[in-house]
Amino acid sequence: MYQSAFFCSYKLAGNVCGFFEVTFLELIKAIFLGALQGLTEFLPVSSSGHLVLGSELLNFQEQGLAFDVFLHLGTLISVCIVFRKELAAMVSAPFAVIRGSADEELKRYFLWDIYVVVATLPAVGAGLFLKDSIEGIFTNILLVYCMLFVTGIIMTVTPYIKERKVSLNCPRALLIGCAQAMAIFPGLSRSGSTIFTGMLLGVNRETVARFSFIMSIPAILGAVVLQSSDLLQNPPDSGSLVVIVAGTIASAIAGYFAIVLLLNVIRRNKLQYFGYYCLFLASSGLLYTFFTG
């Protein structure tokens, strides 16, 4: 009897320890992927490309729809915190214009509202009409390396682009939005593509960087909304909530510091270092694939 009771207690203790071990490993995995998402969402190195490579090379299994949605919410929180003053002005600007009480600054933010809407249109079109046809490319590691190579090239040439100090307008915003839509390919950086396009058009690099971050809000929010219906049909169980919250917090914190870092790098016109990193990663990946594939 005592031996049976001891055996049951031992087995229960073993199961409890195993549960906490799995939970701890899942927690570490969630924090890593959350930080990776937050950093690479805004740094010009491609978040989607790094998540594909991280999951493949580190043998991370699919974390689930809820985890993916909340990681995006984490990055959304970070950009809203950094640009809270600008966003508050952009929200109040239309009402001030309607009342006829808008000063020059609020009128400028009202124009930014229009530019963000215009820039978001290509991404909306890509998300609605190409969603099913592009899902398969996220398993193509070779494509990720090639797109990272493209990201590396466009970042390394940024110091040589002359600034012409032209202003944002609807046509330029639309072209920047097209660059954002093209970044649906994993490995092609959204922030890198939009900043590079804005600089080619002659817009001040810090201005186009801030515009790139702010225009990411509807794009990220749109991705969350598109996935929300599936999430409501398959809500996460209570055991997954701790892991999801940890990943979300890590994503928000990492995203905040990534934005601050990139703005500082852009002021110093040193984007080429991100290009060197992408070229190194792409070249190493292609060589590894060639010799092991």
What does it look like?
The protein contains twelve helices and no strands. It has one domain (30-57, 64-292). It has helices spanning 2-42, 47-57, 65-82, 84-99, 104-129, 131-134, 141-156, 170-182, 190-200, 205-233, 241-267, 272-292. It starts with a helix and ends with a helix. The protein has 293 residues and is mainly alpha-helical.
Q: Count of DSSP E strands?
A: 0
Spatial gap, N to C terminus: 58 Å
Largest sheet: none
- Domain unit count: 1
Radius of gyration: 22 Å
* Helix residue percentage: over 70%
The total count of helices amounts to: 12
- Low-pLDDT segments: 1-22
* Mean pLDDT over the full residue set: 82
Large-scale geometry: globular
Q: Label the structural class.
A: mainly alpha
In short:
The protein is mostly helical. It is built from twelve helices and no strands. The chain has helices at residues 2-42, 47-57, 65-82, 84-99, 104-129, 131-134, 141-156, 170-182, 190-200, 205-233, 241-267, 272-292.
Furnish the topology, listing elements before pairings.
Layout lengths: L1 H41 L4 H11 L7 H18 L1 H16 L4 H26 L1 H4 L6 H16 L13 H13 L7 H11 L4 H29 L7 H27 L4 H21 L1
